Amino acid sequence: MSPLEAISRWLESQDLDTQLEVAAYVTFSIFRKSDVLTLGGPEELDTLQRWLTEPELDPRAAAGRALTFRLAFEYFAEGRIRGDGWKRTEELERKSLELAKRDGKLAAARKAQRKLQLLPTRKEHWYRVAKSWNGLAATYLTREALALGSLPRCDLKAISNGHCLPSVPTVEASDAALVPIVPATAVEEGEEGRNEVLFSQKSGQS
Predict the structure, then answer these.
(1) Partners of 178 in beta bridges
(2) Distance between CA atoms of 86 and 61, rounded to whole angstroms?
(3) Residue 24 CB: number of other CB atoms within 10 A?
(4) pTM, whole model, 2 decimals?
């Protein structure tokens, strides 16, 4: 299975809310059809899936798309895990609620209210999303999987050394440095899944 196919299947395996969140941010980052980030909808999700599954892509272009998705997704996911990435989502949900109430759209208002109430649960859910993604990245988005020559702006040597791809931390690392996961990294699950060790941490040695 190719890196792009693996990404597409992984995305389809997520719940719809997660798919829409990811599609909203990734399409905003890649295509910039709007100057304003939105909550996302079926149109963004369809655009992203067509981009991931375009037939007969040149292998080098396909590897570039896989890397582009990874960079965009991991930046987005890092904000979700650390918590600061939810601020914009909450603002958008509240705006949707206000507009729905103003326009008398009761069903839309109830949906927006429900999403606001579920924010704590959605935040917890993203720990599982990150765990799932890291497993995929360690298998299908390695240097070997993308080894098709140098890619624009970020060559494969830099990727393998961890100089390009951002990390998606799932625990507070304090002063410890996070490095991208490796296949041998163990996953330990503690209270409510918060202690998932998905990244190896440097012990302070240079």
Answers:
(1) 201
(2) 32
(3) 21
(4) 0.65
Tokens representing 105 are 């759209």
Number of domains present in the structure of the chain: 1
CA distance linking residue 122 with residue 80, whole number of Å: 10
CA separation for the pair 165, 70 (Å, rounded):
8
Local structure of 95: helix, strand or coil:
helix
Handedness of CA 171, 154, 22, 84 (dihedral sign): positive
Residue 50 lies in a domain: yes
Q: To which H or E segment does residue 24 belong? A: helix 16-31
Q: What 8-state DSSP symbol labels residue 155?
A: -
Structural domain for 72, as ranges: 3-165
The two three-digit tokens of residue 8, written as one number: 């597409």
Helix (H, G, I), strand (E, B) or coil at 148: coil
User: Which residue in the block uniquely carries the two structure tokens 């965009």?
Assistant: 72
Q: Which residues pair with 201 in a beta bridge?
A: 178
Task: Indicate the residue type of 59.
Answer: P
Give yes or no for a contact between 157 and 176, defined as CB atoms under 8 angstroms apart: no
- The answer to whether residue 191 sits within a structural domain is no
Residue 87's Cβ-side half-sphere holds a number of Cα atoms within 13 Å equal to 5
User: 21-71, pLDDT tens digit by residue?
Assistant: 999 899 989 887 665 566 668 899 999 999 999 998 888 899 999 999 999
